[in-house]
Automatic annotation (TrEMBL):
Entry keyword Flavoprotein: yes
Entry annotated with the keyword Nucleotidyltransferase: no
PANTHER family, A to Z: SUCCINATE DEHYDROGENASE 2 FLAVOPROTEIN SUBUNIT, SUCCINATE DEHYDROGENASE [UBIQUINONE] FLAVOPROTEIN SUBUNIT, MITOCHONDRIAL
Domain Fumarate reductase/succinate dehydrogenase flavoprotein-like C-terminal: 510-607
Domain (FAD-dependent oxidoreductase 2 FAD-binding) ranges: 10-431
Protein name, as recorded: Fumarate reductase/succinate dehydrogenase flavoprotein subunit
Gene3D superfamilies: FAD/NAD(P)-binding domain, Fumarate reductase/succinate dehydrogenase flavoprotein-like, C-terminal domain, Succinate dehydrogenase/fumarate reductase flavoprotein, catalytic domain
Keywords noted in UniProt: Coiled coil, Flavoprotein, Oxidoreductase
Coiled-coil region: 523-550
Length: 661
């Protein structure tokens, strides 16, 4: 096998979004030589697209806010499935992370008296989202990048080189986590997208911060990078994923024109007063307030409208229910024939705010609709519908250290990590999650690396050879051994006889995968459809192994997609298997055949593990699949945190034995 370039670092951070950059800053500040590696250009991570804001209980707009209220809202939003210690740390530490950003140069919008302004969002009791118009993610990334550059300038002064202690490898994709013979992390295997060159970054600590999985679904707000790479990398390294059935469908994506279907319409539109109406002009959300939230939401339009001016004496409008509730309501209205012409519902700000306020508070939305749909949102309603937006499931991590379970030296933070948001994330809680747990991951990765100084784990050459062979397979899809697995229903050995079968087109497989997940494991799920999805995934998995590309390794998007397919198919199987197993409806998982939340499921986590613990894929049975599902009981919620809720409320969520305890 060819010799690949190897570099030594203390900590490697995979991903340069909010979580990755915050982790890298912390690791470098703790003295670790840190490499950041990202698939896109530096600064182009998904975080940059975040619009509405970052949730932190600073109490700037309503002094009633504090970490306990934020914790309560987050647990309610997640229907109590949240890893409660993460929700606690997040609520306690988010304000410090926002103030820290300000000291690093972030320019947030201000209140009249000069404090960081905070806006309303679904599920948050008080105005809590610090924001920069509707371009908050851009400011967050800009600030973190600026901080990285300032650290590199310090390094130049101290050591003569900008990149001696903190280096960014942009447009490079990691395909495997490497381990030593004791199962400890030893680094990553990657390729440069431009040249196709392979290389290895050796390090005893790796932080995965690769974001989400949305590109497995047809209608999504997510960008091209969200192919579930980090989820798959962790799984293949032997770390389990937790609660992958929980996928958030944001209620408001664009539905028209078809070329932009799925692009996000920020929740700030509703936070700032926008209302949802059906084709009959009715504000239908009043009909969809579930029992667990009845006391907290307005019963009439008049009360809901008064809340914007006087939140202390009125209840909030139901347009601001958590996202899962609003998405299901829109879905139901469309299904009942009360949808808009293009299969959504109407979201209107034009009758709620003067045009110049709309343009000032929602500048991106104004331009997005004007340019992409020729709709002037200051004069007419938008048409919106649910879009796949966020994955709550992810790498199972230790709450305090962000260490991935079962693989020493592996850490995960940001959207790729599971647990924090339970069954449904509240808007704004992702940006704060990135900073709180990005920092913690960087800190503990640096400590872990320091503890191994002098005895660094090393991956053997066989692993590198296997990683290189796996990455090159699409160039020889018809070659010997390219496909020895039968398709479902075919006899063992049939594939070898089918020598004349042409290679599969990765783009075609991707489209079929997206359609399958959208139609069969989407916003409303049914047993028979999920079983059908698993059969289809098994077929696609076999065909994906024959996905072939032409040309060479220099910037070859078909090749890149062929490699991403492995990851998307793995995470899709996790979603489908876990969704089939959980026979209740909760947060981002709605079963038509089990429509109620079942308290007996509250203390149950579903873990996905690789069926082949060595991280191999080809050897697994294509029909049985690549994933093994394990049920696990969650640790009891700490009594002082339970005491933050009324007993009557807990009765709605907790399992009987938990209440008894
Ligand atoms: P990302 O920011 O996506 O970064 C992932 C990084 O990993 C990228 O650098 C990518 O190149 C890299 N990567 C991926 N795979 C590989 C690989 N194999 N090898 C190397 N690098 C890899 N949340 C809020 O809290 N508030 C909001 O207002 C908000 N608005 C949103 C608006 C939109 C349109 C969308 C789509 C999301 C929004 N969210 C919001 C959610 C939030 O933006 C994301 O959850 C969050 O940014 C994820 O950050 P991250 O650091 O985990 O991942």
């Amino acid at each position: 096998m060819s010799v690949v370039d190897r570099q030594e670092w203390d900590v490697v951070v995979v991903g340069a979004g909010g979580a990755g950059l915050r982790a890298a800053i912390e690791a470098r500040e703790r003295g670790a030589r840190t490499a950041v590696i990202c698939k896109s250009l530096f600064g182009k991570a998904h975080t940059v697209m975040a619009e509405g804001g970052i949730a932190a209980a600073m109490g700037n707009v309503n002094s009633g806010d504090n970490w306990q209220v934020h914790f309560r809202d987050t647990m309610r939003g997640g229907k109590f499935l949240n890893q409660w210690r993460m929700a606690e740390l997040h609520a306690r530490e988010a304000p410090d992370r926002v103030w820290e950003l300000e000291t690093w140069g972030a320019l947030f919008d201000r209140t009249g008296d000069g404090r960081i302004s905070q806006r309303n969002f679904g599920g948050h009791e008080y105005p809590r989202l610090a924001h920069v118009g509707d371009r908050t993610g851009l400011e967050l990334i800009r600030t973190l990048q600026q901080k990285i550059v300032s650290l590199q300038q310090e390094d130049k002064k101290d050591s003569g080189g900008y990149e001696t202690r903190l280096k960014v490898f942009q447009e490079c994709t990691v395909t495997r986590i490497l381990k030593d013979e004791r199962g400890r992390v030893a680094g990553v295997f990657a390729y440069e997208r431009e040249s196709g060159r392979f290389f290895v970054l050796q390090a005893p600590a790796v932080v995965i911060a690769t974001g989400g999985i949305g590109k497995s679904f047809k209608v999504t707000s997510n960008s091209w990078e969200y192919t579930g790479d980090g989820h798959a990398l962790a799984l293949l390294a032997g770390a389990p994923l937790v609660n992958m059935e929980f996928v958030q469908f944001h209620p408001t994506g664009m539905v028209w024109p078809p070329s932009v279907k799925g692009i996000l319409v920020t929740e700030s539109v509703r936070g700032d007063g926008g209302v949802l109406r059906n084709s009959a002009g009715e504000r239908f959300m009043f009909d969809y307030v579930p029992d667990v939230f009845k006391e907290k939401y307005a019963e009439s339009e008049a009360e809901g409208d008064r809340w914007y001016e006087d939140p202390d004496h009125n209840r909030r409008p139901p347009e601001l229910l958590p996202r899962d509730e609003v998405a299901r309501a829109i879905n139901a209205e469309v299904k009942a024939g009360r949808g808009s012409p293009h299969g959504g519902v109407f979201l209107d700000v034009s009758t709620r705010m003067p045009a110049e306020v709309i343009r000032r508070r929602l500048p991106s939305m104004y331009h997005q609709f004007k340019e992409l749909a020729d709709v002037d949102i200051t004069a007419e309603p938008m048409e919106v519908g649910p879009t796949c937006h966020y994955v709550m499931g992810g790498v199972a991590v230790d709450s305090d250290t962000a260490a991935a379970r079962g693989v020493p030296g592996l850490f995960a933070a940001g959207e790729v990590a599971g647990g924090m948001h339970g069954s449904n994330r509240l808007g704004g809680n992702s940006l704060s999650d990135l900073l709180v747990f990005g920092r913690r991951a960087g800190l503990h990765a640096a400590e872990h690396a320091a503890s191994l100084a002098g005895v660094r784990p090393v991956a053997d050459d066989a692993q590198l050879d296997a990683a290189a062979a796996e990455a090159l397979r699409p160039f020889s899809a018809e070659g010997p051994g390219a496909d020895e697995s039968p398709l479902p229903g075919e006899a063992e050995g049939a594939a070898r006889v089918r020598g004349d079968r042409p290679p599969e087109n990765p783009y075609g497989i991707h489209q079929e995968l997206q359609q399958t997940m959208n139609d069969l494991v989407g916003i409303i799920r049914r047993r028979a459809e999920m079983e059908q999805a698993l059969e289809k995934l098994a077929e696609l998995r076999v065909r994906a192994r024959r996905a072939g590309v032409e040309g060479h390794r220099q910037f070859n998007p078909g090749w890149h997609l062929a490699l991403d397919l492995r990851n998307m198919l793995l995470v899709s199987e996790c979603v489908a298997r876990a969704a089939l197993e959980r026979t209740e409806s909760r947060g981002g998982h709605t079963r038509e055949d089990h429509p109620e939340m079942d308290n007996a499921w509250r203390p149950v986590n579903l873990l996905c593990r690789p069926a082949d613990p060595t991280g191999g894929l080809a050897a697994t049975d294509p029909v049985r699949g690549q994933i093994e599902l394990v049920r696990e009981t969650t640790p009891p919620i700490r009594p002082d945190l339970l005491a933050l809720f009324e007993k009557e409320e807990l009765v709605k969520y907790l399992a009987e034995e938990e209440l008894y305890e």
